[in-house]
Amino acid sequence: MVKEIIVIGAGLAGLTCSVKSASKNMHVKLFSPAHSERSQSVMAMGGINAALNTKGEDDSVNEHYTDTINAGQHINNHNAVEKLTNDAPEIIDWLSKLGTSFTRDDDGNVDVRYFGGQKKMRTAYAGARTGKQILTAINTECRKWEYKDKIKRYVGWRFLSLILDDDKVCRGVVMINENTEEIRDFYADFVVIASGGMNKVFGKISGSLHNDGFVSGKLLHQGIELANMEMIQYHPTTIETPVKRMLITEAARGEGGKLYTLRNGEKWYFMEEWYPEQGALMPRDVVSRSIYRVCHEDDMGIDGENKVYLDLTHLDEKTVKTKLDEVYDVCMNYLNLDPTREPIPVYPGVHYFMGGIRTDDAHKTNIRNLFAIGECSSQYHGANRLGGNSLLGAIHGGWVVADQLEEISCENNSSEEYEILNYEYEAYENWKELQKEANNISSYEIEEEIANIMNRTMGIYRTESELKEGLNKLDSLETIHVNSHGCYYDYILLKSLTDIAKAMLSSALARKESRGAHQRLDYPETNEEYLKTTVISFDNDELKITFNDTEERMSW
Amino acid sequence: MESITVIIKTSKGMKEYTYEGNLNIPVTTLLERINVKHDIKIHYSSSCLQGLCGSCSMIINGLPKLACKTFVNEEATTKKMHKITIEPLSKFHVVKDLVVDRTSMFENIKNSRQWLEEESRINQDNLEFEYEASQCYGAILPVTSSKISKQESNMDKLKFLKENYSNHFYNDCVKSLACENICPMNIQTQRAISIMNRHSIWKFHKLLKK
Ligand SMILES: Cc1cc2nc3c(=O)[nH]c(=O)nc-3n(C[C@H](O)[C@H](O)[C@H](O)COP(=O)(O)OP(=O)(O)OC[C@H]3O[C@@H](n4cnc5c(N)ncnc54)[C@H](O)[C@@H]3O)c2cc1C
Ligand code: SF4
Ligand code: FES
Q1: pTM of the full structure
Q2: Among the three residues B86, B101, B116, which one is the final residue of a domain in this structure?
């Protein structure tokens, strides 16, 4: 019997899982609102980590493991990280064979560069467009399997809900077509969620607009546990543009870029002074806090504003234009600034979600037959992610899950009728009625309000009073009648965003310590008691939080 | 504060809006602000908002462009006295307002079978071109096309590719060079084609004769 797999999301994680499953003779339905070429994965610039040890630095997978755990402040799932770092060199090899045009050194080896939080050159890259280059390769492979009818793509479809049977086993999904608003059910032996980060709760951040967090929010509502939701990465170097805060990749510092501000009219390389060994290449949480300190505690931001300089002017012009081509383009296009001649004004911005759907080292969720991979999952990065580990994690997730799907036996007896589809139809009809009311508040206003609350309360530093105030404000938004401009999805999205936002604030409240990306002004110390995974779920309409062992396995 | 007239071709016909404010913004930001200000939803596709994903192509003042990389001040003030016209791409089925369905393009790529049947080898001298080609938003010019032409050894596949290639490039392309001006990634499409011609056609012939 051929196994049927549903994959939600067609970024690197979803694509890898699909391609690998197809090659193991399974049948895949791959859903996404837009084609893979539009996913956030194509935005990844800097690189992907693997201890290839080609630079005579005596690097090893053990060191990659240790660096990852240290950066994550020991609340990563250690077993998961062990597999991740062990498999990394093989993943690079696989990607090369698929045709990724990695930048190569003079010996023809995949070149590696320095990245934050790692003392060895370990980050493989393809110019400054690593994500795009890798995606092109896997996507091409995917077409091959589409052509052979092993993978069927559904583009323009968004996830609406899981289909769960009476024993809480996942049987399939209900999806909505963005263009026609058709609501439909799809069944499979296994469902794999690969829907990316929860970007929209913070408004517009460095990543893609498609990854709004709807899936994670809806899953929470349906009884799926989320984990480490308070762990939100501020990338140290983002630039302010009229569009949004855009990212300047860590590779800019990996290639030798320096951070400074002006003190008495002179350049002050504060990172080198405070952290002589690794300087500007400390882990991201440390660099972001340092910039915060310069601007807010020392009051030494450039021109009295919240910014410091990222300086590339001393680098060889060719390095900037070829190895950092994307940095050059972004600065020229959106700041009208030539980074080979002028320093770039930067400040930390929300970038990545270490937390998400609770997953164990096998990428299993707490619901039987449901997996989660890529940025929406949560086991690899702990309290802070190393740059270059998320592309790796996304691909690894797809790889690990496909292997298991092949192994796990499944009984396929689903001819049951499920209530959920009718429920979704009804919800849609209710919305239509609601939209007829006058004086509804615009969905744009609510989205903005949620983002404001999150940006205010979930910054680099947090306090109990602010978090509580944020939660109250979120509660008050829930009773408002919303006008979603004829777009059903925009309407249901708000409920999910509110749930996710609450889960983040509640988790941040519960973790009464400071660790990695989670810094509490009222609990500034790291506390051994919290060497745990924060787990949040709905229990009779109330959010419930527990702290679980980081290596805990799911029971199925 | 400057003011401009924005004309948008929506599913409900041509609509005209006045926008006041900073003009040093890309067209995606302009659309976003018009939606919020007028409390409406004009549908358009976007994802990365920084010229990396190709979602937001639309016709701006008559030419296909990426809305997130096209700045309003350049379009509206210098070229067309305080006016900007925004329409959906004209070669595809319009789904809603500025959103088009480009499935046919992806289907064509799939059916042209641009992938290697074997493991890819490293072509050190071809790397730069491969890097450039795989920046293509539609991955129409994927790195593999050039890899295939250098490497593929499966005979049936080569025969298929040869037919396909001569239909599309030799007989269909009129070499007007217009694509070079339009490509938002500045990919030198003619150079790409000529490199592929060089690698492929003769190689296909040679291989197939054997
Ligand atoms: C600017 C930038 C630079 C980065 N640079 C690096 C780097 O150098 N190295 C590194 O390791 N990482 C980097 N990252 C992080 C990395 O890009 C992501 O973590 C990674 O690509 C995630 O892959 P994914 O497959 O999980 O998600 P994505 O690629 O985001 O894919 C998510 C998929 O889910 C789909 N989806 C979303 N919502 C729904 C829904 N409701 N229903 C159905 N489908 C849905 C999306 O359309 C998409 O197809 C960077 C990120 C950004 C933003
Ligand atoms: S070559 Fe340029 S214009 Fe053509 S599809 Fe690719 S990116 Fe678009
Ligand atoms: S939104 Fe990605 S290119 Fe414009």
Answers
A1: 0.95
A2: B101
